[in-house]
């Protein structure tokens, strides 16, 4: 293909060069003949040479512009494809030297679009199949949590109740013993509170059940930030609807990202933004923490691997942008080439 392109382009350039030379020569000759009888020979020669050079420059500029426009068209199309717009196609303008290259690009873009559709389709189906196959495991986990609650928090509450019931009489009989029981009550209540928080944390991934992503985030994100002394701002700019699989993956990614902020960033505020373009969904989480050098983070650290894997299941990608003292930004982009809700 490239050989054919070079050959056709070579002959087109040769033709332009010949045409420019002929026109330049003819105009120079006309100038020569028009000036030779009335002007000194030196000026005649300079005039003819000037006309020859001027026409050559004009032809050269025109030829370069033609070629540059075609290259710019190709470059812009490649840039759009690199940014996820696989539906881009180049209209053939009748330029023989570039037509074959344009056709090859269009074929490549079409193949990439079909492959990305297939990747997203398979990824979404796997996510939903995995969710269905996990229902039994979820039920079993709920039974386990019920047993654990009975064996831990429930017993702690019962012990607290018994101690609290006996405390008034004990204060009348033995003041020192009553103070000791009071300390035990405080310790037991703290233990019960910690155990309950652990169980709630284990149940957090269920927040999305029965709700849209927007509804779940409106409830969960402010509560989570408040519990962890963060000033959180949620900016929802999504105009289109997302498939259930995309919402599920984005929610899990957001949970992982905000957990990393709490664990590592030492931030006081963060902003969660969800937006979409014609071709992709973008999730961004920006914090004002201490930041770090991304190049020095070990592979698999900072939760990046988990978030990357979740985004890659839908053909997307995860980026972490950070500098020491400048906070951290987690950016996730997922193409919207294939929408499960529109599948026939």
Unreliable residue runs: 1-7
Query: Kindly, what is the distance between the CA atoms of the first and last residues, rounded to a whole number of angstroms?
Result: 38 Å
Order of helices and strands: HHHHHHEHEEHEE
**Mean pLDDT over the residues:** 76
Estimated radius of gyration: 35 Å
**Counting H and I runs of at least 4 residues, what is the number of helices?**
8
Strand content: 5-15%
Keywords summarizing the entry:
disordered N terminus, about 10% strand, about 350 residues, single chain, alpha+beta
Describe the model.
The protein is an alpha+beta fold and 344 residues long. It has helices spanning 2-35, 41-82, 96-133, 135-173, 175-203, 213-227, 244-265, 304-312, and strands at residues 231-237, 269-276, 280-287, 317-322, 328-335. A 5-stranded mixed beta sheet has the order 1-2-3-5-4. A hairpin with a 3-residue loop joins strand 2 and strand 3 (280-287). The model is unreliable at 1-7 (pLDDT under 50).
């Amino acid at each position: 293909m490239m050989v054919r392109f070079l050959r056709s382009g070579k002959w087109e350039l040769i033709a332009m060069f010949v045409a420019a030379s002929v026109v330049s020569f003819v105009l120079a000759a006309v100038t020569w003949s028009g000036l030779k009888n009335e002007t000194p020979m030196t000026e005649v020669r300079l005039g003819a040479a000037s006309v020859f050079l001027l026409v050559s420059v004009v032809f050269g500029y025109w030829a370069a512009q033609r070629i540059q426009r075609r290259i710019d068209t190709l470059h812009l199309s490649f840039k759009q494809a690199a940014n996820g717009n696989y539906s881009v196609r180049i209209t053939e303008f009748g330029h023989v030297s570039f037509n074959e290259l344009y056709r090859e690009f269009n074929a490549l873009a079409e193949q990439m679009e079909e492959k990305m559709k297939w990747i997203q389709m398979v990824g979404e189906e796997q996510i939903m199949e995995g969710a269905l196959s996990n229902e039994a495991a979820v039920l079993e986990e709920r039974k386990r949590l019920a047993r654990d609650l009975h064996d831990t928090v429930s017993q702690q509450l019962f012990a607290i109740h018994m101690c609290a019931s006996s405390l008034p009489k004990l204060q009348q009989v033995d003041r020192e013993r009553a103070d000791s029981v009071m300390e035990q009550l405080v310790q037991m209540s703290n233990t019960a509170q910690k155990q309950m928080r652990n169980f709630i944390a284990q149940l957090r991934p269920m927040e999305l059940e029965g709700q849209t992503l927007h509804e779940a985030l409106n409830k969960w994100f402010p509560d989570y930030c408040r519990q962890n002394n963060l000033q959180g701002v949620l900016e929802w700019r999504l105009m289109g609807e997302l498939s259930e699989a995309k919402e599920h993956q984005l929610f899990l990614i957001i949970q992982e990202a905000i957990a990393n902020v709490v664990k590592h960033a030492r931030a006081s505020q963060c902003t969660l933004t969800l937006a979409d373009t014609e071709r992709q969904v973008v999730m961004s989480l920006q914090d004002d923490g201490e930041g770090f050098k991304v190049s020095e983070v070990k592979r698999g650290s900072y939760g990046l691997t988990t978030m990357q894997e979740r985004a890659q299941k839908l053909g997307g990608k995860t980026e972490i942008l950070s500098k020491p003292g400048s906070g951290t930004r987690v950016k996730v982009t997922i193409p919207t080439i294939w929408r499960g809700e529109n599948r026939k």
